[in-house]
Please model this.
Amino acid sequence: MVENFSEMLESSLSDFRYKEGEIIKGTVLSIVNDTVVVDVGLKSEGRIPLKEFHSPGEDHNVKIGDEFDVYLEKLENKEGEALLSRERARKEESWSQLEKMQDKKQEIMGVITGRVKGGFAVDINGAVAFLPGSQVDLKPIKDISPLLNKSQPMVILKMDKLRGNIVVSRRALLEESRKADRSKLLSDISEGDKLKGNVKNITDYGVFVDLGGLDGLVHVTDLSWERVNHPSEMFQIGQEIEVMVTKYDTENNRISLGIKQLTDDPWHNVEEKYKVGNKIKSKITSIADYGAFMELAKGVEGLIHTSEMSWVNKNVNPSSILEIGQEVEVLILEVDNSKRRISLGLKQCTENPWKDFAKGRKSGDTVEGKIKNITDFGLFVELTDELDGLIHLSDLSWEDNGEKEIKKYNVGDNIKFKILEIDVNKERVSLGIKQLSENKGKSDKFINKIVTSIIEKIDVEKMFVKFDENEKGFIKKSNLAKIKTEQNTSRFAEGEKIDAKVLRKNKKEGIYELSIKDLEIEEEKEALKEYGSSSSGASIGDIIGAALEEGKTNSTKDKDEKK
Model:
């Protein structure tokens, strides 16, 4: 009886030894299902959920006989058991440790347990902290699942024990690490280095690559030796790629990168591989309004310009005769390695209809054909199914002017004409109607001659002139100039000397009709013959200017000789 009393007394006294709200030692007596039974020296044991003994994502390692600090919430509950909490004890312990670590600015290990408003909840050895969304990573993360329930280093930004608030950051540590990597990268980097990085951003003009603390740009022209429509066709954000440092601006810490430089330049010695004049077969890779691109080798493309697709149609639509993937034969026209340009010809691998026409026809032949088109400068006549020839205004009639004569014809009319000239190189056939008959006015020594006239009288519609001392003539307003805006009598003055071509003689009045316009057309024709060529880049103005300049020079020479 005495012993029972002593035990009861000791048990009662032990209850007074502890105060509620204290942290005391407890020993694990047993583990039942998900509950740990703990003895803390009170008259009754306490029960604590097993999950309070480990952090989320971790397995428990609690064994019978283990000692733990526990928080005494109540000496006994309604069931007469001690109300204990391992989690509260862990929190108190964590708070104490975290305060010390914050003072020393040490990193801590935390586990992201779930999403909360504005960020995420983090378990730090029992203490619950808040991780703002902006502090998770260096850049926004769409999917955070790979980071959940994993212990990760962080730093404490703010602690408020009274309110129980802890704010942590993962980003701050990553930035420190990035700065260290950046400094190391800047000190070690040099042009020609091969590096690995992750695609950070993709734009129309290139790809930004994160090299680990420093971003570099791969311009679209440095992505591949082959044609690149858009960088997004080759890469994805986050993708790890290998690059080469092509340029390093130390002053601005700018790094230019290249990917194509990691492989050999396919344009090396391209002139040796692709000789001008050789024929080659390959596939069409892309089509544009101005032509079609053909892959000659990996990274080497040639262009078939629209002008080199058809002998007869200069404005052909490339898509109408070619398609991507089609294999065709072409002729190599030009190779320019410095500009990385190869010009190809499609039409050159087919029969030239202009050559075929020249084989069966010659200048002076009389031919019959249909009028296909009527323009301000003449008639286009069908020669074959593919070819047309031009009858210029000046070649319509010996007597009437071209503008008047052309009104007699209609599209679709079958007419006879003579072949005046076949120019295979310029892909042009000149025709004439007036040449079918003799020039009735050729007995007149002035017809078709260039004469210098003096203006005697001017009215709104024409000018009256005198040439060769006693011969009279007139120039219509429409024949004052080739350009309509210059067909104005007010440009001239009485007594002024002008050059004009004699067209015909008005037998009734006994005076001649002259034309400045026909003279300009004739001079233009002659200039094109002498100075123009199929390969020339000169404009008509340049050609005429050269002719006039030579005319001035010759005129000066003549004057000097006369002196």
In short: DSSP finds nine helices and 30 strands in the chain. The chain has five domains: 2-90, 189-262, 270-349, 353-436, 446-503+510-563.
